[in-house]
Amino acid sequence: EAQVTQNPRYLITVTGKKLTVTCSQNMNHEYMSWYRQDPGLGLRQIYYSMNVEVTDKGDVPEGYKVSRKEKRNFPLILESPSPNQTSLYFCASSLGGVRPPTGYTFGSGTRLTVV
Amino acid sequence: EDQVTQSPEALRLQEGESSSLNCSYTVSGLRGLFWYRQDPGKGPEFLFTLYSAGEEKEKERLKATLTKKESFLHITAPKPEDSATYLCAVQAYSGAGSYQLTFGKGTKLSVIP
To answer: Which residue of A53, A102, A111 to mutate against B (max B Cβ within 10 Å)?
Structure first.
């Protein structure tokens, strides 16, 4: 089944403890991205990657890191999480390459709570 | 700065009562407008991509249209299972082969039996 898989689905952590949220897709998509969703603010892009070793900042990159060493994986790293990073996070992927990305497929989400 | 505004924020319809959701946008270099459906606690589900003014796409009870400034999602004879939040997003070229996606805040649709 074609899908984007995020882990974990739920995570409660303490301020300052480094964490990684994994994202993997099995569709051979070039394009991958991370979003956070907060009530009243909607979905906001954190980082995106057009292909392996190519990443760029979205609208709200502060406090986050990403890497794209393999085509299928795009982990989101919070090196020192703070309570304002409590949110619902989504990973997405799409075909890209020479054409613009189309028909993004989203993962099921990771609900992160930082206390 | 790219902006996407969806209206109304919430919409309650009786089953069978057709209506439209609006997505107005300002973007430099539009490279696609997307509609998604999102159920509570789940990831957005892709519905349509529109690329140029005048384009229309249909799927079951849903029809999406695009002009140079806005898009409409028409819902014909909705059923309770159409209840969800509908998201609009615009994709713009940001240079060096990169594209950015900006979402609106969504319209929460409730269809009452």
So the answer is: A102
Tokens of A68: 């794209």
Asked if B57 has any chain A CB less than 8 Å from its own CB, the reply is no
pLDDT at A40: 87
Q: A90 and chain B: CB distance < 8 Å anywhere?
A: yes
Count of A-B CB contacts under 8 Å: 64
Question: Residues B37-58: pLDDT tens digits?
Answer: 999 989 999 999 999 999 999 9
SS3 sequence of B28-70: CCEEEEEEEEECCCCCCEEEEEECCCCCEEEECCEEEEECCCE
Q: What average pLDDT score do residues B15-22 get?
A: 98
Q: Which residue has the tokens 């609208």?
A: A59
